[in-house]
Design goal:
Layout (H helix, E strand, L loop, with lengths): L17 H12 L1 H18 L3 H14 L4 E7 L2 E5 L1 H11 L3 H14 L4 H20 L20 H11 L3 H5 L9 H21 L5 H17 L12 H8 L5
Antiparallel strand pairs: 1-2
InterPro entries: TPR-like_helical_dom_sf
Keywords: Signal
Protein name: Tetratricopeptide repeat-containing protein
Length: 252
Amino acid sequence: MTVRARRRAVVCAPHAGRRWLFLLALTATSPVWASLGKDYDTAILQIERENYEKAIPLLKEVISEVPASLPRIRLYGMRFASYTPHYYLGLAHYRLGNCEEALSSWADEARFQVLSGENAENMASGKADCETRLVQAGKELPVPGASVADNGNTNDAALREVVNAFFNGSYEQVAHFDPMTLGDPASRGQAWIYRAASQYTLYVLGGEANGKSLSDVRSSLANARSSDPNLVIDRNQFSPKFLKLMDQGVVR
């Protein structure tokens, strides 16, 4: 399985949609993303050089800031690329023989439905190889974390649209969605969480300099707790830093 050669810089196609144009504009000016973009690009380079141990911490860092894969982002300067950090993290683990970690990362990547072409083929073949290795070693295959769609709280079609928009990287759309339009407390609680996560991602991409944006995140988290005091989420869907902020309000 080979690492796809890194592509030269390209600009976002006109038909990419408003959400991608918005994210491109945001990442073009964000000092936080400028640093993350370089770390992401460096991690890919380290994988190409077979320095997998060096790539892993870099990828974990960028994932902790921006967990959702995106079809096209600005890395730095005029260099643009797809952003699929979970794929590369899984690839690094796979090359080191860590199949459990590889499968976990690739399961995360599959959530976002961004990966395509040779990288998607590489992930599929690596996944099959890892599953075979684990079975031959007498180990159980990792069980994917339950998605929000499996927890009984997505009967409302509008909530499913919110979840899909979040995993498609439409953070601006989700950040402005009104959860109070949903029909039951459980769905409203889930929607407030996705709204808070989207607001937090936009806050990070904006350089973490807007105090009001962070206040909006905290407000959405408080609304999630008040909407559904028994709210339970799939923590695998969110970044560690967002989870830390969320845990201050004891959302499980």
